[in-house]
Amino acid sequence: MLVVHGINQLNIKGRLEVKMIIARSYATQHTRKALAARTASTPLAVRERRQRQLGLAPGPEETDATPDGLSPSDFARYQRHKALDAIPKNPDGKYQSPKEWVLRRNARRSRIRGFRTIRRIVPTKDDPTVTKTVNEVDVVGQPVYLPNIIFRLVRNHTPEGQDYNPFEATFRIPPSITKTDIRSYLLAVYGIKTTYIRTDLYYGRLKPRGASNRKMRSTYKRAVVGLVHPFYYPHRIEDMPEEERENREQSIEQQYFIKEGQEMFAQSRFRSASVTARGQESKQWKFDAGSVKGRGKILREVARRRQLKEQMVSGLVGDWHRTRMEGKTVTVDPPRSRKPKKEAEAKAE
Question: Can you name a GO cellular component term (predicted)?
Fold first, then answer.
């Protein structure tokens, strides 16, 4: 099946042309999504400048990239380097195409640093008197130490009605980490190549604790990273079907004992509170899982009992009304005495 894609391309004179490219949908689906993700994550100031200068205003799932995959900034940089004769030439004497140039630049940025290739002359195995030149990899630079930072992977922000973008990954990282650190960390530790990185800083807020104590929520930096290969985040438990969700929760409970840990934590807190109130631990202490503790739980329990009482009274009044409508006499049992049993017996004698 052939489909037609409309792609904007910026020519040398800076004018906007529209070219129609015929491609197979299954061959361009992932590439177009990746380019659309890069366009959507472009800073707002850059998008406004491109719209003002170039007239580019792509939609939510569209891209402003050229057919070779270059962003407007990369294409302008290619034209500038070409005018300065800074673009490498092929063996036929022609300049590299925009696609070849950007692939060469990305390969250089993603290279593994700390290594270099050295040509050495070594004897051959068959005849030691005959030598040959071989390329060997030599390690240079300083020792590399493992990082002591935490990269927390979270789900991407997906607007309602749009599909999850697998060509983006979102991390929560310490505020001191830079974009170069992110690129080097992902490549050196996990072998993940990145296409772009957007960062924004989230400052912590004061969280009230009691009358005077306040705790500052931790400040973190969010990093949105463009991926070369798609990564599909696992489904959330809330999005799973009911049967699959129950199996998942049961599997998590069997592996990590979350509910058991919560019960043990509640027991330890109640036990410590009991010891603090009495001054010493009681031998007859017993944990009651059904007891109500805390002001909020007490108020909810009071409201629940009040609702039950009102329902019981309204039901009894309804029974009396139906009895009267039938012409019968309503009989009410006398209230039970609340006096102690011994006083009631003495009064009867």
Answer: mitochondrial large ribosomal subunit
Residue-wise pLDDT for 251-265, tens only, equals: 888 888 888 888 888
Note the pTM of the prediction, 2 decimals: 0.46
C-alpha count within 13 angstroms, C-beta hemisphere, residue 115 = 9
* Strand blocks (E) in 174-234: 194-202, 206-209, 213-216, 220-227
Q: How far apart are CA 134 and CA 118, in angstroms?
A: 8
Separation CA 175–CA 222 (nearest Å): 9
Which class for 186: exposed (0-12), middle (13-18), buried (19 or more C-beta within 10 A)?
buried
Q: 């309204």: which residue's tokens?
A: 314
Do 196 and 41 touch, CB atoms closer than 8 A?
yes
Q: How far apart are the first and last CA of the chain?
A: 104
Contact 171, 202 (CB under 8 A): no
* Paired tokens of 255: 């592996």
Q: Check if the beta carbon of residue 86 is closer than 8 Å to that of residue 94.
A: no
> Within 10 Å of residue 105's Cβ, how many Cβ atoms?
14
Q: What is the mean pLDDT of the chain?
A: 78
Alpha carbons 71 and 37: distance in angstroms, whole number? 12
Give the closest residue to 71 by CA, choosing from 82, 58, 87.
Answer: 58
Q: Which two tokens stand for residue 153?
A: 């992977």
